[in-house]
Design goal:
Blueprint: E1 15-18, E2 28-30, H1 36-42, E3 51-61, E4 64-79, E5 86-93, H2 101-112, E6 118-125, E7 130-136, E8 141-143, E9 152-158, E10 165-170, H3 177-185, E11 189-193, H4 203-210, E12 212-214, H5 217-228, H6 234-244, H7 258-277, H8 288-302, H9 311-321, H10 323-338
Helix pairs in contact: 1-2, 2-4, 6-7, 7-8, 8-9, 8-10
Length: 339
């Protein structure tokens, strides 16, 4: 099988690798690990803006040429990253929702959180119809309870409707079409995500299906146990709120805007209600662990969302995928654990 990497008129290929050349010696080799933005840049995966366009067909009749709409069928079209021209990648149905390459990388990042995993390879296959990104799992992660030894987390996406978005854990480092096929055959675990509007909300399901766990769980448990044993006053909880959420003050003004003050006041009220009366904290009321639980309950289930039609689903997706929510929880945990 040939490498099937996408080639460009300048002689380059849509492939980037960390530290070492692949067997085909194509693409760009970076001296060290790289991040999602570099994957988009060096493998020419950024800015494709894959979208659906209605299909039409032209037929010749006795009256001349007639153009007809093709019902329920759409072409997936990208913007060529080199010449900026539109290109057809495949044909899909009405329910298909494109997963952009940037989302592809973000989904992979979300799976490993702060574990230290880094991108190893990225590339485009078959003229942009398929895309792969590979991360090498670090020793801070476990696969089904076993330490990884050169094990990779691989995300495969198709823009032509031929397959789902697939995640797999495999000992094979993907660098081309044939190694991708080998990685699929030798995968220790796999998880598929359909191309639908809810794809980005399936991170936790994917993590469980792939058997990804974190070694720091034991340390987290020990610190949580310590928090349960330590009391916290109402005044200390208010100070914690102020430390976790700082209210921005516009430059050159004496105080934050009225809108910022209103948002902060509403947030404080909601958090204090959870701290004092949430049923989930009944057995741990007045402890540092209850304080942390109040904050996580607020970010996951109470904080306002923009989608008023389905706020429950919006909050669930935000809780799983939002970097800001994760940062708030981490900040709160660190402050409580160290004070």
């Amino acid at each position: 099988m040939a490498d099937q990497l996408e080639k460009w008129t300048d002689g380059s290929a849509s492939f980037v690798s960390a530290r070492k050349h692949a067997w085909h010696r194509l693409g760009t080799v970076l001296p060290d690990e790289f991040d999602a933005a570099q994957a988009m840049e060096y493998a020419k995966l950024g800015g494709w803006r894959v979208r659906k366009e209605a299909l039409q067909t032209t037929v010749l009749t006795s009256d001349g040429v007639t153009t007809l709409d093709v019902p329920e069928q759409f072409a997936t079209v990208r913007t060529n990253p080199v010449n900026g021209q539109p290109e057809v990648l495949g044909v899909v149905g009405r329910g298909y929702t494109p997963i952009q390459n940037e989302e592809h990388a973000a989904l992979l990042d979300a799976l490993v959180d702060e574990s230290g995993a880094h991108f190893e390879t990225a590339g485009s296959l078959r003229g942009g119809r398929g895309v792969f990104l590979t991360m090498k799992l670090p020793t801070t992660m476990q696969i089904g309870g076993v330490d990884p030894l050169d094990v990779y987390l691989i995300a495969l996406n198709s823009h032509d409707g031929t397959s789902a978005f697939r995640l797999l854990v495999s000992p094979v480092r993907v660098v081309c079409a044939n190694t991708q096929a080998m990685a699929i055959r030798r995968a220790q675990s796999t998880f598929s995500i359909r191309h639908t509007s809810g794809a980005s909300g399936q991170i936790e399901q994917a993590r469980q299906a792939l058997g990804l766990t974190f070694k720091y769980a034991e340390t987290f448990q020990a610190e949580a146990d310590a928090m349960i044993a330590q009391a916290m006053t109402d005044a200390e909880f208010r100070e914690l709120i102020d430390a976790v959420w700082t209210v921005e003050q516009p430059t050159g003004t004496a105080k934050p805007s009225k809108r910022a003050q209103t948002i902060a006041s509403n947030r404080r009220t909601a958090l204090l209600n959870l701290w004092k009366s949430s049923p989930t904290a009944e057995a741990i009321r007045g402890t540092k662990w209850a304080a942390y639980q109040a904050i996580t309950e607020y970010t996951d289930h109470v904080a306002p969302v923009s989608d008023k039609r389905n706020p429950g689903a919006a909050r669930a997706e935000r809780a799983i995928t939002s970097a800001n929510v994760a940062a708030v929880k981490t900040r709160a945990f660190e402050l409580i654990a160290t004070n």
